[in-house]
Amino acid sequence: MHYGEAMCFFFPDVVYDRLMAHLKERVGQRWGNEGMPPVEERRKTVAELESQRTALLEKRRTLEGEINKISTALRS
């Protein structure tokens, strides 16, 4: 195990604090994503999209069933 891995395992808070201090020193308070929506808004959008996807998949299954019925009727 490398020294860094051991530090992360045994002292994750210390590693996090040092890493964040170093990043803030080099980058500052601006991370370049200020124009992006907040995390809560993104989570809400993801939940809405997943709900829409579920509804669309159900509609797709229904349409496939109807197409199969029509195809079966045409073959008879």
Automatic annotation (TrEMBL):
Q: Give the keywords, sorted.
A: Coiled coil
Name the coiled-coil region(s). 39-66
Q: What is this protein called?
A: Uncharacterized protein
Q: Which organism is it from?
A: Candidatus Dactylopiibacterium carminicum
Lineage of the organism:
Bacteria, Pseudomonadati, Pseudomonadota, Betaproteobacteria, Rhodocyclales
